[in-house]
Design a protein that fits this description.
The protein is an alpha+beta fold and about 150 residues long. About 30% of the residues lie in helices and about 15% in strands. A five-stranded mixed β-sheet has the order 2-1-5-3-4, with helices on both faces. Strand 1 and strand 2 (about 10-20) form a beta hairpin. It is globular and about 50 Å long. Bound molecules: FE2/S2 (inorganic) cluster (FES) (2 copies). One FE2/S2 (inorganic) cluster binds near residues 100, 101 and 136.
Length: about 150
């Protein structure tokens, strides 16, 4: 039987009826049509589905939508300002060519914003360690690391 779900997503209150078995990533993509949150593995390995819940990065492919009841969610679509200007981390990825195919990029960006909240001035070693849960199949991570370093100084 569907349950009523309410949460705040990218600053807006939303409510919807969902089946209890619905994954949070499917709710975000299919019900809310916020398709910037990607599904790469569906098994919590690749990080393409990373969002922020109550201010912390989480992989939403291994959570149920009902676990987000009452929470505050931020997805990649919520990062840009109202005038369309990019979040500093998005700008740093663009400026340092931190993406190629871009499939992993939303999850990377959400993860490293969380990283900088916890460690405002991370070493390269720490950035690489923190990116352990975000897989990019087309780069050597070098430009992604450069982008994070640049954003930490922005
Ligand atoms: S789709 Fe969630 S970690 Fe890969
Ligand atoms: S840019 Fe292609 S998987 Fe990361």
């Amino acid at each position: 039987m569907p349950v009523r779900l309410s949460m705040t997503v990218n600053g807006k209150p939303i409510s919807a009826d969902v089946e209890p078995r619905t994954l949070l990533v499917d709710f975000i993509r299919d019900a809310l049509r916020l398709t910037g949150t990607h599904i790469g593995c569906d098994t919590a390995q690749c990080g393409a589905c990373t969002i922020h819940m109550n201010g912390a990065a989480v992989k939403c492919c291994n959570m149920l939508a009902v676990q987000a009841q009452g929470s505050t969610i931020l997805t990649i679509e919520g990062l840009a300002k109202a005038d369309g200007s990019m979040h500093p981390m998005q700008a740093a990825f663009r400026d340092h060519h931190g993406l190629q195919c871009g499939y992993c990029t939303p999850g990377m960006v959400m993860s490293v914003i969380d990283l900088l909240k916890r460690h405002p001035n991370p070493s390269e070693e720490l950035i690489r360690a923190e990116l352990d849960g975000n897989l990019c199949r087309c780069t050597g991570y070098h430009n992604i690391v450069k982008a994070v370093q640049a954003a930490s100084k922005a």
